[in-house]
Design brief:
By secondary structure, this protein is α/β, with parallel strands linked by helices. Helices cover about 40% and strands about 20% of the residues. The protein contains 22 helices and 21 strands. Strands 1, 2, 3, 4, 5 and 6 form a six-stranded parallel sheet that branches. Strand 4, helix 5 and strand 5 form a beta-alpha-beta unit. Helix 2 runs parallel beside helix 6 and helix 21 crosses helix 22. The chain is globular and about 85 Å long. It starts with 14 loop residues before the first helix and ends with a strand. About 40% of the residues are buried.
Amino acid sequence: MLLKEPSSLASPLSEKQAHQLKTLVEELNPLQLSWVSGYLAAKSEVGDTVSPAAQPQIPSITLLYGSQTGNGRGLAQELVEKAAAQGININCLSMADYKPRSLKQEGILLIVVSTHGEGEAPDDAIELHQFLNSKRAPKLAELQYSVLALGDSSYEFFCQTGKDFDERLTALGAKALVPLVECDVDYEAIAEQWQNAIIEALAAQQVSSFESSSAPSVAFQPSATKSQFTKKQPYSAEVIISQKLTGRGSDRDIRHVELDLGESGIRYQPGDALGVWFDNSAELVSRILAKLNIDADEQVEVNSESLTVSQALQTKLELTQLSPKLVTAWAELSQSSELQPLVDDKAKLRQFILKHQLIDLVEEFSISSAGISAQQLVELLRPITPRLYSIASSQDEVDSEVHLTVALVEQQTQSGIRYGGASRFLANAEEGQQVRVYVEPNNHFRLPADPNTPVIMIGPGTGVAPFRAFIQQRVADGASGDNWLFFGNPHFEQDFLYQVEWQQYLKSGDLTCLDLAFSRDQAEKVYVQDKLKAQGEQVWQWLNAGAHLYICGDAERMAKDVHQALLDIVSQYGDKSEEQAKVYLEELRESHRYQKDVY
């Protein structure tokens, strides 16, 4: 039913009523108009006798996100805001804050989830993922759902967690509201299509319910307050210092970077990450263009924006990280006998991508005589994505500054040294230079609410960054809980990051214990997991006393080795079987006493 303009209605309405109605109608969107139309129709038929029980129950809409780096959370928030603009209320929360047994009460379930590592669920999605794949999962024949899966096609198990959710929900009887959508690293356009499809499907469902009912029952809520500076609208922070932490004899260059947030009003908490947008090296861009015989001033279009190919490569496109799409295209262009076999072997392709950059393709695998145009080149490349760095400071200590601990990524190849895009940008940053940044909250890597709670922090290399922030915050809060840090790096004299600070904290008693593992200072290599096992009995005592456990750093090796060491400790000193030890650590994770920030 459509509402006519008040001016065309017969005259039961007074002039004042007609004006009020016209004013209201002009403010409503199409979905709200349908709501009002159905409501008025019901009122005209049954007057004031419509009871709440007689009103139709529009299915509840719940949006759950599982996100390791914040992309999933950001897309979920975008969908909530777009839906709210159309009068659709969506309950949105992290999977970590959701009770899995509530699934049987849901009407419509929307899922945005990333895949971590080799097909693994992100930390905040683990519990729900396990529940759905267990015998406890209920039949969900009344549920409608849709999944937006985020992933990286350079990994073998692309979007695996999202696929898992989709397959399992279908097996439990749920019906797809919108089919599964898989997104690669450059996810924005495809994710937006999914968001629009979801809103269209929800609007159609709710309007249909309104038209067949005596009265609507849905709440319209305003969107949540958002920070002024975001991934899409970053703040331009000024570099205060970029100072080398490692010694002259070190085989690695690790920097302490301080940025001034000025009057931005940006707030962050210990455990959060800073997103950093960067420009590619002008020297690298020149080498690529020269090798391809492309004029640096040639005009190209990137996302409907016209600019020179040099500007596009320096500020818009990814040069230091390859993608399967790019390698596959280059294999075709170059007809290389070395690249061709990689295309069909995901494991070998992944290893190739990890060890090569665009400049390697350009210099080592010459393309055909026909060459490649500037526009063809930019269309093969992914857009630049910001890099996330664990924040190494507490605002209660540094006020309007934010500190980072950045390892310069450099790899020696046959053709020369290859640098990481963002790490080189920050390492070369000079005082006064502007860097575009935003805060990426990490609510699943937080200090315990009770300041009396002891904490155990395991952070080798740059993984020590958030623990510098933790200690600064504990000192500022006057926390009485004990603090224990496990730190490791190759050499004591060259690689002891923030050595003076840790020694001062030890002297003051703010740091209770410090265990160090310098792997190459003796014949037999020693790592943090070895130090952890050596202190196993005391670690178990701390855990029994309620300690919170934190790990930050390399996900591929360190985090797995540390986890195994913890299993051994729990089994040995807790007198538990291997399976019981696994359950114990899982319970710690579920109670937020075992938290990881790994990459």
